[in-house]
Automatic annotation (TrEMBL):
Alphabetical list of PANTHER family matching this protein: N-ACETYLGLUCOSAMINE-6-SULFATASE FAMILY MEMBER, SD21168P
Key words, A-Z: Glycoprotein, Hydrolase, Signal
GO MF assignments: hydrolase activity
The organism's place on the tree of life at top rank: Bacteria
Name of the featured protein: Sulfatase N-terminal domain-containing protein
Pfam families from the UniProt entry: Sulfatase
């Protein structure tokens, strides 16, 4: 979706018209715009005693563990995460609104779509009119819309640890001294690890002094001859863990409840520099690394590293010749559009397998952190595990990276444990913009009208409740500028080739409208449609299926999603 702000009002009005027309034929499962609950008559009878406790007297502590670029095939390698999934609620249809770091994180923090946050890319691009990164996040009023502010008003003590928003960094003053980044409202404890943490070692973090001002703490890279214990004590994931445990231990006996977000840098690739002797794009903790000369060794958790193969990457190497987008003309006539997947396939099988195994090694330190956080927080705490986006590594012949609308990039884990959570899998569609209203709901706090997501709190104790049936995605093309962290240098690809798009995903298929015109003024729309009668986006069937009922339903919803208001956005998922 391109940032043509002057057209948003008109697009929203058109969306409402399209929605009204569409709702007449969508059936009884569609709910009223803005409603958070489905028709009670459609809900199965459940035990009323299983209701979640969200009253003022019974508010629970909450912890969000957010991973970075985590792809689902890694989950089975993690002992504690697997245990957590067995003991809690697992949402099988969990997606992100934008499969790119900064837009996804902005959406999660506010419960809004990218076309509402106006955080569309990772970097600002134009300093005068930023379209992404920290500049856009603060410029367009998102700081005041973070769900953490609502939790504070409800009496929660809030803490943040780890990776925040892209380009939230220290700056240099006239004397060359590093100046801390600005204070962020909504957080009582503020331990953000700055961008140097992508490399694993050698970075800075923030803390609040006694006057509430942001200060910097240095985490120097240990000497090359330091012990494994010394090196791993300074590893970014382990420092994130230590900050998290400090917060929990300081507040678990408080009278007031707390909320803690733990945002790990793993398993995102490093940027540029690497620790001496560790020349990998995905740096694990030293204790988990493969020994020199043994590429199949090291610690891959529940699965031996040697047993991880490219067959685990669903759709790896799939021929893209049948994925070319399709034009839709008058009278329903279709024609082939130019291919946008024109990148050279430079990721070798050997490199892909090596990086897959390093990513599995990398998440083991996160898994140990999960175990320690769960033990410290206790069973009466809601703990949520998810990721800001997925990651493709040779699927769709896209080399490595994210940003695409496909399952490898948009589908993420969502596991919840805590009081009154009924274990088992959930089939409802959930998006990461639904997390903010869910946290507010669990806290007994009101959800602001600007939130585009819908709480799924009730499904934690009532797994069969009706919920979302569709997920929407959007992505904005922007030529990468200095500071872009997702150029996929380590994997041989580039995010620059993915066009702007909006998309809708239902149980039967995925419909994507790409804008093949890379300018921000023109449009050149073409479509891809995939049926999910096989486990990946195998072949674009838009030409043959676009007039079928399931495809027409997706098209109605996609048209109404363009520039949708929050209430319309919420209604379209039902």
């Amino acid at each position: 979706m391109k940032p043509k702000w002057s057209a948003l009002l008109g697009a929203a009005l058109l969306a409402v018209v399209a929605l009204v027309a569409g709702l007449l034929v969508l059936g009884p499962k569609t709910i009223a715009a803005g409603s958070a609950a489905a028709d009670p008559s459609a809900a199965p009878v459940e035990d009323p005693a299983a209701e979640l406790a969200a009253t003022t007297d019974e508010r629970r502590n909450m912890v969000l563990i957010l991973m970075d670029d985590f792809s689902l095939e890694l989950l089975r390698t993690m002992p504690e995460a697997t245990k957590m999934a067995a003991e809690g609620a697992t949402y099988q249809n969990s997606f992100v609104i934008d499969s790119l770091c900064c837009p996804s994180r902005a959406a999660l923090l506010t419960g809004q779509t990218p076309h509402h946050t106006k955080v569309l890319t990772n970097t600002q691009n134009d300093p005068e009119h930023p379209v992404g990164g920290w500049s856009a996040f603060q410029r367009y009023g998102n700081l005041e819309k973070q769900f953490s502010i609502g939790l504070q008003k409800a009496g929660y003590t809030t803490g943040f640890v780890g990776k925040y928003i892209n380009a939230y960094e220290a700056t240099l003053d006239a004397d060359g001294k590093r100046v801390p980044p600005p204070k962020v409202p909504g957080w009582d404890t503020w331990n953000a690890l700055l961008g140097g943490a992508y490399g694993g070692w050698g970075y800075q973090s923030t803390y609040l002094d006694s006057d509430g001002n942001v200060q910097l703490h240095n985490h120097p890279q240990p000497a090359r001859n330091a012990s494994v214990q010394e090196k791993d004590a300074a590893y970014a994931t382990n420092v994130t863990r230590d900050y998290a445990l400090d917060f929990i231990n300081a507040h678990r006996d408080d009278e007031d409840p707390y909320f803690l977000e733990i945002a790990a840098y793993g398993p995102h690739s490093r940027l540029g520099h690497h620790y001496p002797g560790l020349d990998t794009w995905f740096p694990p903790a030293v204790a988990d690394q493969a020994p020199a000369g043994d590429p199949s060794g090291g610690n891959c958790g529940r699965v031996a590293c040697a047993d991880l193969t490219l067959k685990d990457l669903v759709g790896y190497g799939d021929d893209r010749s049948d994925n070319v987008p399709t034009y839709l003309g008058r009278g329903g006539r279709t024609s082939q559009a130019p291919a946008w997947r024109t990148n050279k396939v430079s990721l070798s099988d050997e490199t892909a397998l090596s990086q897959y195994r390093d990513r599995a090694r990398m998440v083991q330190s996160i898994d140990r952190m999960i175990a320690q956080v769960r033990e410290a927080a206790g069973e009466d705490t809601y703990i949520v595990l998810t990721s800001d986006n997925g990651f493709h590594l040779g699927q769709h012949q896209l080399n490595g990276g994210k940003g695409a609308p496909y399952d490898s990039d948009t589908r993420v884990p969502l596991v919840v444990v805590g009081p009154d959570v009924v274990p088992g899998k959930r089939s409802q569609f959930v998006n990461n913009i639904d997390l903010a209203p869910t946290f507010l709901d669990l806290a007994g706090a009101p959800t602001p009208a600007y939130v585009s997501g819908t709480s799924f709190a009730e499904t934690l104790s009532r797994p069969r409740l009706p919920g979302g049936r569709y997920a929407f995605f959007e992505h904005t093309y922007a030529k990468s500028h200095p500071g872009e962290v997702d150029l996929d240098s380590g994997s041989g690809g580039t995010i620059d080739i993915i066009p702007s798009y909006i998309a809708v995903r239902g149980s039967q298929g995925l419909l994507v409208r790409f804008d093949l015109d890379k300018s921000w003024k023109g449009t050149d729309y073409a479509y891809e449609l995939y049926r999910y009668d096989r486990p990946w986006e195998d072949r674009n069937v838009f030409a043959e299926d676009h007039a079928k009922p399931y495809a027409r339903d997706l098209m109605r919803r996609l048209d109404a999603y363009e520039g949708c208001t929050p209430a319309v956005c919420r209604a379209l998922t039902r």
